[in-house]
Write a structure and sequence with these properties.
394 residues, alpha/beta, Rossmann fold, 6-stranded parallel sheet, elongated
Length: 394
């Protein structure tokens, strides 16, 4: 792995691909700066080692140049976090960007305008990548959230930096975390896969089965498995097209000696609402007109026991509709168990947008081993797919 400590940054300009795709409110204020903070160690390392930094990122999904998606709204907050003035170029290529990059002195930081103002970025255009590359001496990819995209700034650009390209500290942490789960895990290994649909998690489950000892299946996808086994699931979410595949997954798990945990009981409701009537029943016996929206106390107990006995834990997906307080208990209790297991020496990796949101909601992000910043990239890595942004550096 070509890491940041393999490069001499003294008097060098480092072009860093970061992921500053952060949420803004209607006053263009940042409502969650997690991704910005995650990039700071790499920026500070380069500055501390005598280099200057040119930051490039996308923000949102603009169709051409659009002020609502300008990275100028990031500048002030970034400056506060870095405790230094941050320069801004109102374009990412062209005369302004070239001039400001050329004038950059060691210790200074320049933020370029939104890469996606140019369609060439997503198209992976080589000429666009070459123009970006001309701004600097070194290329650093620290944007795990976009590592699964073969965009100009994440994959194509690396070819212009032979022996002068590396991973940033964040991307290095992400890759090491995934590798700990997939290739260097201490047994027993527990994968907790939740979320709404089986269809979105098939690749992950199939890639993980040879590597894990236990598999907890939670969230809406539970009911596809329960129905496949002959249970009555009422109005619960189900993918009827995947019933046979669910059976196949269970069969493969059995063949590979993987213990599969399905919720013995569920908290069900008569409407998809925080204020619906609720009760707890056997997951296999849900009446018509009712739907499962969280795991019940028996499931929490058995799942938690298995988590506490694990040495490596992956959480990818919630156990229920944790956004609603009436159905957050299962997800919260399992995160509590992960935190306790982590404090006992286990390695825990939290990945996927909903899982990260849940850990943050319950204030547990600092109490697990690692929380991934990349949703789609994390999923594809766990599926065993090659990430273009990673391949370009390796």
């Amino acid at each position: 792995m070509k890491t940041i400590d393999s490069i001499d940054f003294n008097n060098k300009k480092a072009l860093i691909r970061v992921d500053f795709n952060v949420p803004l409110n209607d006053k263009f204020e940042i409502t969650d700066d997690t991704r910005i903070k995650a990039a700071l160690p790499t920026v500070k390392y380069i500055l501390d080692n005598g280099g200057s930094v040119i930051l490039m990122s996308h923000l949102g999904r603009p169709k051409g140049s659009d002020d609502r998606f300008s990275l100028k709204y990031i500048v002030k907050h970034l400056g506060i976090l870095l405790d230094k003035d941050v320069l801004f170029a109102d374009d990412c290529i062209g005369d302004t960007a070239t001039k400001k990059a050329a004038e950059l002195k060691p210790g200074e930081v320049l933020l370029l305008e939104n890469l996606r103002f140019y369609p060439e970025e997503k198209a992976g255009d080589i000429d666009f990548a070459k123009k970006l590359a001309s701004l600097s001496d070194v290329y650093v990819n620290d944007a795990f959230g976009t590592a699964h995209r073969a965009h100009a700034s994440t994959a194509v650009i690396a070819q212009f930096f032979i022996n002068k390209k590396c991973f940033g500290l964040l991307l290095e942490k992400e890759l090491l975390g995934i590798d700990k789960v997939l290739n260097q895990s201490k047994k027993p290994v527990m994968a907790i896969i939740g979320g709404a649909k089986v269809s979105s998690k098939i690749g992950i489950i199939e890639n993980l089965l040879p590597r894990i000892d236990n598999l907890i299946i939670g969230g809406g996808m539970t009911f596809t498995f329960v129905k496949a086994l002959g249970g009555s699931i009422g109005n619960s979410l189900v993918e009827d097209d995947y019933l046979e595949l669910a059976k196949t997954i269970l069969q493969k798990a059995n063949e590979q000696n993987v213990s599969v945990f399905l919720a013995e009981d569920s908290v069900i409701a008569d409407a998809f609402s925080n204020h619906a009537n609720i009760k707890t029943v056997d997951t296999k016996n849900i009446d018509d007109g009712w739907m499962g929206l969280d795991i019940g106390p028996k499931a929490i107990a058995s799942f938690s026991k298995a988590i506490l006995e694990s040495k490596t834990i992956l959480l990818n997906g919630p156990m229920g509709v944790f956004e609603m307080t009436s159905f957050e208990n299962g997800t919260r209790k399992l995160i509590d168990a992960i935190v306790k297991s982590t404090s006992n020496g286990s390695f825990s990796l939290i990945g996927g947008g909903d899982s990260v949101a849940a850990v943050n909601k319950f204030g547990m992000s600092k109490k697990v081993s690692y929380v991934s910043t990349g949703g789609g990239a994390m999923l594809e890595a766990l599926e065993g797919k090659e990430l273009p942004g990673v391949k370009a550096i390796v």
